[in-house]
Amino acid sequence: MSKQITVDIVSDTVCPWCYVGKRRFEAALARLPEDVDVLVAWRPFQLNPDLPREGADRRQHLERKFGGKDGARRVYDAINQAGESVGLPFAFRNIERQPNTVDSHRLIDRAGQAGKQDAVVEALFKAYFLDARDIGDLDTLVEIAADAGMDAAETRAYLASDEDIDRIQAEDEMARKMGVSGVPCFILNRKYAVSGAQDPDVFLQAFETLAREAEEAAADA
């Protein structure tokens, strides 16, 4: 009998640890037995919810956030090392804009309805972190959607509207009320949380715990 596990991944599209965490999570999935079916849904979180919709200069933003140039450099030296460990050559020096991410989260939500969510999440991470593109830009988001097989005209009209902005912001707030203060956060079967870009073994241990509990519940039924 197939064992099914649901994973809600709370993340932000400008969070480099979320991209590293995605790679480590995928490495864990590749080691699961064939009879384990993992259903993944990506949930919104904004690290910088107060940014203007047009975004901001990234260098200035990071220096304010991390207490100056040296503070930002120390933080990103560690992130670069983590990226290299999972094959992600981050292009931080080439990124000029720090985008507001509400529209990228709206796109992820719409992609989920179209069955394209993981492809769009991966494309957003790649566009921002590896290709240094502005994922707060409407044209960039529409191109990402179209490349994933979504309708470009419908996506453009949707993102140009205010539809779902309040709902995305409400989901962000709900995550915070649930205790999520940093991302990525992986919520398994809406019961256990794995916080941070953990090694694959940590995810596998959590999966094993869920599988054992399911077997015990079945035996007691």
Structure explained in plain terms:
The protein is α+β, with helices and mostly antiparallel strands. The chain has one domain (3-220): Glutaredoxin. 53% of the residues lie in helices and 14% in strands. A four-stranded mixed β-sheet has the order 2-1-5-6. Strands 3-4 form a two-stranded antiparallel sheet. A hairpin with a 3-residue loop joins strand 5 and strand 6 (192-195). The longest helix is centred in the C-terminal third of the chain and has 21 residues, at 200-220.
Describe how the helices and strands are arranged.
Blueprint lengths: L2 E9 L4 H14 L6 E9 L11 E2 H8 L3 H17 L11 E2 L3 H12 L3 H14 L7 H10 L4 H9 L4 H13 L7 E4 L3 E4 L4 H21 L1
Parallel strand pairs: 1-2
Antiparallel strand pairs: 1-5, 3-4, 5-6
Helix pairs in contact: 1-9, 2-3, 4-5, 6-7
